[in-house]
Specification:
Blueprint lengths: L2 H8 L3 H6 L16 H16 L10 H4 L9 E3 H8 L2 H11 L10 H13 L3 E7 L2 E13 L6 E4 L23 E2 L4 E9 L5 H9 L8 E5 L5 H10 L4 E5 L2 H4 L21 E2 L37 E4 L1 H10 L7 H4 L22 E12 L2 E8 L4 E11 L7 H23 L6 E8 L2 H4 L1 H9 L1 H7 E6 L8 E6 L4 H8 L11 H12 L3 H6 L13 H7 L4 E7 L12 H8 L4 H19 L7 H24 L8 H35 L14 E3 L1
Parallel strand pairs: 5-9, 6-7, 7-8, 8-10, 13-14, 13-15, 15-17
Antiparallel strand pairs: 1-18, 2-12, 3-4, 3-11, 6-11, 12-14, 16-17
Helix pairs in contact: 3-24, 5-13, 6-13, 13-22, 15-20, 17-22, 23-24
C-alpha cells in the first residue's frame, strides 16, 4: 500500500482531506478536525439540525388566515417585485464608489462608515464590529540576479506595475507595493530553481529528477494550488525563499488581448496574495480559535502553526523573464518532466528548465507587523415569525487595490440587496427568518474579518444559522460557478432557472448547464445533465462558517477573465470596458443571490436536499476506493491491511446511516408540503414564501 494512502487513512482529518481536492494543504488545526467515522455520523445529525427547524412551521391561527386576500383581492409575486426593484444604475454607482481607491485591510474605514450609513439609510439595524488582528505591511523589497564571484548585479526587478493612461486606479498613489500577506520578513540568497506551480507533486517531481531545492530560491507560477501551499511546500523542501509570478499561459496574452486592449493580465501586472495557511485555520494567526478582540490574549508568532517561515514575493512575468533566462540549459528541461511544466513565455524566447542556476538570486522582503483595527459591518433584518433563525449573506470589502471584480462587484451587489429588501419592506414584506448582511474586512489577508466574527458568535451561529451565502467576486467573467454544500443543489437549480442570463433568451441555469457539460471531465456528470456544483470545495469567507461552525454554505459568482486579480488593473475602467459594460452580469448575480436569500429566509419548508449530501458522500468514498485500487495495481503491494479495511467498512456504515436519516428528513418534508401547500398556495402567512397580500 502506498504511504500516501496510509497517511490519508490514518490521519484524524481523513474524510475532510478526501472531500477537499487540495489535500496538499496539510490538514487543519485540532478544532477544525473530525475523526473519520464521527464526521459522517455528524453529517447525519447535521442534516436534522439544519433542516428540522425549518420543517416545523408554527400551527395555523385565525390571524394567519385572515389575510388570504387583500382588499383588492389580489396577490403580487414577490420574485417579480424583487427583480423589478433591482437597478443597474444603483449597481454601477455602488461599484464606482467602492473602486474609487485602494482599500486594503484595516485601511478602509471610510468605506466601512459608508456601508454602515447605507444600511441604516435603508432602515436596517446595523453596526460596526471591530477586531484587532496581527497584520503586515510592506517596507522594502528587492529581487536581483548577480554573479557571486564578481558580485556584479546583472538584473534587478522593477517590482512595480505600469500606469495605464485613462485608468485612475493604476495611478493611485496609495497602491501597495508588491508583497504577500503574512510573508516572513527576511533577506535570503541562493541559486534559482523552477518548480512549476509549486505543489507537493511538483516538488516530488523535482526530487525524482535529481534536482535539489535545498538552500535555493524557488520560482513558481500562480495557479493550481493556493500560494500558502507553494511557500510551505518549498519550505519543507529546504528552500530559502519563494518567488511567485503570473505566467501568461494561465491568465495572460495566450488567452487573448491583454489590458488595456483586452481583459487579460499585462506584462507588468503583479498579483498580490496571502501566504497564511488558512486551511490549518483561517483568521488572526495569534488568536487561533477565539476572536481577536482588543484585550484578547495573543500567542507568540513563533508558535503560530499557520505561518510560513521563509520570505516570499510576487512577480510580474516581465520581472520573471530574466530570472527564467538565468536557468536556461541548467538542470533538466521542464518538458522532460511534463509538458504541463512549460508555460506561455516560450513566445518570448524562454525555454523552461529546472535549474539550479549558476548565478545567485537575492530576495529581500522587509515587512512590518503590528496589530491593526479592522471593521466588519453587520446589518440585520429581523424575521417576523422565526427571528431566532438567521440566513447570513456576506461579501468581503477589503481589496489589494481598487478591486473592481474582487471584491467590489460583490460589495456593490450587497448594497443593492440592502436597498431592495428595504423597498420590499415598504410594501409590507418581511422575511420569515432574520437576514444578516455581513461586509467583512481583511479577507485578503486570510479571511480575518469573517473568521473573527464567527469565532465570537460561534455558539449562537451553531444554534440559529440556517445558511451562509457568500459572493466574494461577484463578476469576474461570464461563466457562472458555484461551490456549495450538496444540500443546496435543488434550491440553486430552482433559483437559477428563474434568472435570465444577460443578452440571451436563456436562463442562468441554461448557460451554467451548457458551460458545465463543455468543461466536464466526469462522464457521470454529463450523463446526469445537471450543472456542476463543486461540493466540499468551499473557499473564501465560507470557510469559517462551514468548517468551523458547521453551517451549510454557498459561494458563487460569475468567473472567467481573471487576468487582473489582486493587481492595480482590477479597476472600474477594466470592468466596464471588457467584463460587464452594462452591469447586466451584476444584475444577474444580484437576482440569484437575493432570490436564494429570500427563499432561505421565507420558505416555511426549506428545500435542503439531505439525500444529495448522502449521495455525494457515497460517491466520494467510491472514488477514493477506486484511486486506491489504481495505485495498488501499479504497486507491488496489492493487499489492504486490516486496519484500512476496517476503516473503510466503518465509512460505508456511517454513510448508510446518513442516507437512512436523509430519507426520513425527505419524507417529513413531503408530508409538511402536503399539509401547508406550495408557494402561493400556502395557507395564510405561509404564502409569504413567494407572495405578498395587499
Amino acid at each position: 500500500m502506498f504511504d500516501a494512502e496510509k497517511q490519508l487513512l490514518n490521519s484524524d482529518g481523513a474524510v475532510e482531506k478526501q472531500l477537499r481536492p487540495h489535500h496538499e494543504q496539510l490538514g487543519r488545526a485540532t478544532r477544525f478536525r473530525r475523526r473519520t467515522v464521527t464526521v459522517l455520523l455528524s453529517l447525519a445529525a447535521l442534516a436534522f439540525v439544519f433542516v428540522a427547524p425549518a420543517l416545523l412551521p408554527r400551527a395555523p391561527s385565525t390571524s394567519d388566515t385572515d389575510d388570504l386576500q387583500s382588499s383588492a383581492g389580489g396577490l403580487i409575486d414577490l420574485t417579480r417585485l424583487f427583480f423589478n426593484a433591482l437597478s443597474t444604475d444603483h449597481l454601477r454607482t455602488n461599484l464606482e464608489y467602492y473602486t474609487s481607491g485602494t482599500h486594503a485591510a484595516g485601511a478602509n474605514k471610510t468605506q466601512a462608515a459608508h456601508t454602515l450609513e447605507y444600511f441604516k439609510k435603508q432602515g436596517i439595524d446595523a453596526e460596526i464590529v471591530e477586531y484587532f488582528p496581527w497584520l503586515n505591511r510592506p517596507l522594502s523589497q528587492r529581487v536581483a540576479v548577480f554573479n557571486s564571484t564578481t558580485h556584479e548585479v546583472l538584473f534587478e526587478a522593477l517590482l512595480r506595475e505600469d500606469a495605464i493612461p485613462g485608468d485612475p486606479a493604476s495611478e493611485d498613489p496609495n497602491n501597495l507595493a508588491p508583497f504577500h500577506a503574512y510573508s516572513a520578513d527576511g533577506n535570503v540568497t541562493g541559486q534559482l530553481v523552477y518548480a512549476n506551480y509549486g505543489s507537493n507533486d511538483d516538488f516530488n517531481a523535482l526530487e525524482q529528477a535529481g534536482i535539489s531545492v535545498n538552500d535555493a530560491v524557488v520560482i513558481v507560477r500562480y495557479g493550481k494550488v493556493h500560494s500558502s501551499v507553494k511557500v510551505h511546500a518549498a519550505e519543507l523542501a529546504g528552500a530559502r525563499g519563494v518567488l511567485i509570478y503570473s505566467d501568461p499561459k494561465d491568465d495572460g496574452y495566450t488567452k487573448g488581448k491583454d489590458y488595456p486592449v483586452g481583459p487579460w493580465r499585462p506584462e507588468s501586472s503583479i498579483r498580490r496574495d496571502s501566504v497564511l495557511r488558512h486551511r490549518i485555520h483561517p483568521g488572526d494567526p495569534l488568536t487561533p480559535g477565539y476572536p481577536s478582540t482588543k484585550n484578547s490574549q495573543r500567542i507568540d508568532p513563533d508558535n503560530a502553526v499557520n505561518l510560513c517561515r521563509i520570505p516570499s514575493l510576487p512577480l510580474s512575468y516581465r520581472d520573471a523573464l530574466p530570472l527564467l533566462s538565468a536557468i536556461q540549459n541548467h538542470g533538466v528541461a521542464a518538458s522532460n518532466i511534463s509538458s504541463s511544466w512549460v508555460g506561455g513565455l516560450t513566445s518570448k524566447g524562454i525555454e523552461y528548465w529546472t535549474g539550479p542556476s549558476t548565478l545567485e538570486v537575492n530576495l529581500e522582503n522587509r515587512v512590518e507587523y503590528r496589530t491593526v483595527a479592522i471593521q466588519n459591518v453587520v446589518g440585520r433584518i429581523k424575521g417576523w415569525e422565526d427571528p431566532g433563525q438567521a440566513v447570513i449573506i456576506g461579501n468581503h470589502r477589503d481589496a489589494w487595490s481598487s478591486g473592481a471584480s474582487d471584491p467590489s462587484s460583490g460589495s456593490a451587489v450587497l448594497l443593492e440587496l440592502a436597498r431592495v429588501f428595504s423597498e420590499l419592506g415598504k410594501l409590507g414584506w418581511r422575511p420569515r427568518r432574520t437576514i444578516i448582511l455581513g461586509s467583512w474586512d481583511a479577507a485578503e489577508y486570510g479571511l480575518i474579518g469573517s473568521t473573527e466574527w464567527v469565532e465570537e458568535n460561534i455558539d449562537w451561529l451553531r444554534a440559529s444559522a440556517v445558511a451562509y451565502v457568500n459572493v466574494g467576486a461577484a463578476v469576474g467573467g461570464n461563466a457562472f460557478a458555484v461551490t456549495a454544500s450538496p444540500v443546496f443543489q435543488n434550491l440553486l437549480y430552482a433559483v437559477t432557472k428563474q434568472v435570465p442570463y444577460p443578452h440571451s433568451n436563456e436562463t442562468v441555469y441554461d448557460v451554467w448547464l451548457r458551460q458545465s457539460l463543455a468543461t466536464s471531465l466526469d462522464a457521470d456528470a454529463s450523463a446526469k445533465s445537471r450543472p456542476a456544483i463543486s461540493p466540499f470545495e468551499l473557499n473564501g469567507d465560507t470557510i469559517a462558517f462551514a468548517m468551523h461552525a458547521g453551517i451549510s454554505s454557498v459561494d458563487m459568482g460569475f468567473v472567467g477573465s481573471a487576468g487582473a486579480q489582486h493587481s492595480n488593473f482590477d479597476s472600474f475602467k477594466r470592468m466596464v470596458s471588457f467584463v460587464d459594460p452594462d452591469m447586466q452580469l451584476h444584475l444577474a448575480i444580484a437576482q440569484v443571490w437575493g432570490l436564494l436569500a429570500i427563499r432561505l429566509a421565507d420558505d416555511p419548508v426549506l428545500d435542503l436536499c439531505t439525500m444529495c449530501y448522502a449521495k455525494d458522500i457515497r460517491h466520494i468514498i467510491r472514488q477514493f476506493e477506486k484511486q486506491m485500487r489504481l495505485r495498488r495495481s501499479a504497486s507491488v503491494a496489492d493487499s489492504v491491511d486490516m486496519s484500512t479495511a476496517k476503516k473503510l467498512r466503518r465509512l460505508h456504515a456511517a454513510q448508510r446511516q446518513l442516507e437512512t436519516n436523509a430519507r426520513i428528513v425527505e419524507h417529513d418534508k413531503r408530508h409538511l408540503r402536503s399539509v401547508y401547500g406550495e408557494e402561493c398556495q400556502m395557507t395564510g402567512r405561509r404564502r409569504h414564501a413567494s407572495c405578498l397580500a395587499l
